[in-house]
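URGENT: need a sanity check before tomorrow's submission.

F., can you look over the Cell division ATP-binding protein FtsE record below? I want to be sure the sequence and structure line up before it goes out.
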Amino acid sequence: MGAEVLRDLSFQIAPKSFQFLTGPSGAGKSTLLKLLFMSLKPTRGLITVFDRDVGTIRKAELPALRRRIGVVFQEFRLLDHLTTFENVAMPLRVLGREEISYRADVIELLKWVGLGDRVHALPPILSGGEKQRAAIARALIGQPEILLADEPTGNVDPPLAKRLLRLFVELNRLGTSVVIATHDIGLMNQFDARRMVLHEGRLSIYE
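Structure tokens as predicted:
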């Protein structure tokens, strides 16, 4: 099966907590986030998400559990033929909700992330930072209990990275648990939070 990417990890993501997940490239940060999102299953060991053993969750149950988790991907994953509004609203459309029931919420969220004037813009004309904020808004529109962000500031300049961090901090204050995977030491030094450090497949935690 090849070498293990992660091994012998033991940790808990507490409700309403904030933590950075860090380590060198290739340390397994993205893999750990995928395990938390239940898009990967562990080859051994136990992972519980919302008090459920991931190894025993039926496939039909996964979508409902994943809706309680917001994910910000490195690649944004915006659909180029949809406007910023439509991209952010996509998780609600998938649930079959009518636009009239969520339009005001999406507009308010876009204003909150600084995209109030880009509601009708298509992704190809957005800057990297604007795409990142749109991806964050899409992850938040379902009001997740946990937010997993994979290198959310990797494609933006330091001032915007600081602004994005403030958004995550404010989100945490509103009650969402936040896990930010990053190798940006400067970003982490801006906010006093728990650090989970991966190195050679093992995890060290600094409170």
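My own read: The first helix runs from residue 29 to 36. The longest strand covers residues 194-199. If you see anything odd, call me.
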